């Protein structure tokens, strides 16, 4: 059995904390058993490890999430990297070809697909384990996990069981056959579906690797990972549910009665937060069911407001009634890049980004590098930079010339100049980057580790 976690998302539902570089699963707003703030992906990975599944697990993600994934989970996590976002059908097809042509997984092996951000109890993974045996004994093409609904939700898809399996369903023993699916119904229809013993579709399903490889061959899609990566842009932007699941002839579902929640909106996420306030600010005592999440240094005060969420980050400010927060993605269309990014070596915060009438552009950043970490040996093709060291000490290299740097040092890095820095203690740098807006800037990287840089680039 191999487990594949799907990690994607555009970062709009939990704006302004989430963005294209830091999707919802990376927000550190949940607490672990040690009362430390952790992200959804850190929580799920901890559960996977605790259930002995980490050695069989891969994470399918896109290029923009590689650094933050490794920063939060570890540098040795096996990643399957998609060249661009193309929805779950393409991501799962790419993962299948990786397992087939790179990991030498057999065609008879069970592959279990799991979202990277479900909020579940540990025993949920007992049901995940069961999917392998269900595939073997049912001879179904696909096996699902369906969650027993607790209310007529309009946010989830529903799995409707076959009527012939109603008695088996009521006994609660084992899997049942699936009749059809219903996507996000109205509340009235959801009530009718629940009366038909329908289950919430939690996005967990299993298939034999050979089933998907055969599907790819029938569609004329490459089954080798490298070739499919090259042709990835040709795959349809469609969900696996629509392209495969709804066209499968034999599907079974395993009912799950434990706790499960999709923390995809601010109202559902805040329900699972231990603290109603993270960051600087105050919530007055007459506020009820109100949450403040503040990532900047300016304090925020909330007085006399109930059932609201206030979220503040370098990307923007959100003030929303919790019941309205699911509509957020329809309103976020600001033409700006991420103002905060978490990297494998630290983080970047955009302090100012300005374009002048003469065509110049100037971006000011605050950059933090963790002790022992370093930037790659790189150069900018169309931007020059001025660095001011404001915290810590480090080792700096520019075109092979090495020097120690400390607080107060100012470094000028012209365009097309190779450079890197390593933090001997936690480093903070104010970076002012400038150039001509219309001249596209490329970052060319030669080496990533400090050992490589020291071996090949430092002049003796």
Helix content: 10-25%
Number of domains: 3
User: Major β-sheet, in short?
Assistant: 6 strands, antiparallel
Stretches where pLDDT falls below 50 for ≥5 residues? Answer: 166-173
End-to-end C-alpha gap:
52 Å
Shape: globular
Mean pLDDT: 91
Label the CATH architecture of the largest domain.
Alpha-Beta Complex
Question: If you consult CATH, what is the topology of the largest domain?
Answer: Spore Coat Polysaccharide Biosynthesis Protein SpsA, Chain A
Structural class: alpha+beta
How many whole angstroms does the radius of gyration measure? 25 Å
Number of helical regions: 11
Main-sheet strand order equals 20-21-22-29-24-27
Supply the CATH class of the largest domain.
Answer: Alpha Beta
Specify the CATH homologous superfamily of the largest domain.
Spore Coat Polysaccharide Biosynthesis Protein SpsA, Chain A
The portion of residues forming beta strands comes to 25-35%
Strand tally, please? 30
Protein name: Mannose-1-phosphate guanylyltransferase
Keywords: Nucleotidyltransferase, Transferase
GO molecular function: mannose-1-phosphate guanylyltransferase (GTP) activity
Organism: Paenibacillus uliginis N3/975
Summarize the structure.
By secondary structure, this protein is α+β, with helices and mostly antiparallel strands. It has 11 helices and 30 strands. It folds into 3 domains: 2-262, Spore Coat Polysaccharide Biosynthesis Protein SpsA, Chain A, CATH 3.90.550.10; 275-330, no CATH class; 345-456, Jelly Rolls.
């Amino acid at each position: 059995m191999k487990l594949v976690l799907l990690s994607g998302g555009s970062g709009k539902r939990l704006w302004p904390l989430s963005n294209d570089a830091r999707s919802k699963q990376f927000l550190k707003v949940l607490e672990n058993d040690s009362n430390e703030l952790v992200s959804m992906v850190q929580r799920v990975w901890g559960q996977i490890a605790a259930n002995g599944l980490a050695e069989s697990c891969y994470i399918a993600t896109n290029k923009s999430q590689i650094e933050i994934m490794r920063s939060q989970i570890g540098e040795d996590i096996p990643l399957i990297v998609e060249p661009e976002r193309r929805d779950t059908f393409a991501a799962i097809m790419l993962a299948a070809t990786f397992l087939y042509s790179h990991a030498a997984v057999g065609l008879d092996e069970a592959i279990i697909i799991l979202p990277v951000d479900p909020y579940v109890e540990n025993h949920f993974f007992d049901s995940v384990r069961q999917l392998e045996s269900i595939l073997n004994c049912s001879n179904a093409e696909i096996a699902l996990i369906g969650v027993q609904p607790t209310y007529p939700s309009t946010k989830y898809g529903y799995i409707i069981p076959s009527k012939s399996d109603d008695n088996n369903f009521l006994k609660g023993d084992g899997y049942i056959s699936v009749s059809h699916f219903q996507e996000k119904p109205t509340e009235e229809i959801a009530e009718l579906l629940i009366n038909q013993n329908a289950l919430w579709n939690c996005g967990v399903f299993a298939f034999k690797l050979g089933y998907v490889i055969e599907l790819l061959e029938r569609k004329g899609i490459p089954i080798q990972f490298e070739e499919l990566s090259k042709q990835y842009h040709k795959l349809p932007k469609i969900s696996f549910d629509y392209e495969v699941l709804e066209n499968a002839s034999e599907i079974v579902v395993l009912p799950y009665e434990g706790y499960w929640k999709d923390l995809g909106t601010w109202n559902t996420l805040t329900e699972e937060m231990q603290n109603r306030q993270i960051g600087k600010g105050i919530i007055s005592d007459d506020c009820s069911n109100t949450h403040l999440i503040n990532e900047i240094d300016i304090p925020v005060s909330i007085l006399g407001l109930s059932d609201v969420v206030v979220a503040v980050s370098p990307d923007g400010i959100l003030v929303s009634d919790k019941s309205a927060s699911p509509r957020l993605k329809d309103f976020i269309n600001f033409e700006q890049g991420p103002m905060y990014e978490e990297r494998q070596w630290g983080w970047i915060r955009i302090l100012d980004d300005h374009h002048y009438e003469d065509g110049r552009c100037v971006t000011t950043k605050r950059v933090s590098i963790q002790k022992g970490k370093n930037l790659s040996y790189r150069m900018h093709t169309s931007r020059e930079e001025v660095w001011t060291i404001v915290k810590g000490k480090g080792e700096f290299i520019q075109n092979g010339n090495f020097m120690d740097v400390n607080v107060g040092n100012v470094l000028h890095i012209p365009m097309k100049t190779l450079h890197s820095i390593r933090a001997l203690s936690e480093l903070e740098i104010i970076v002012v980057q400038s150039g001509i807006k219309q001249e596209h800037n490329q970052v060319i990287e030669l080496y990533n580790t400090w050992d490589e840089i020291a071996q090949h680039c430092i002049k003796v």
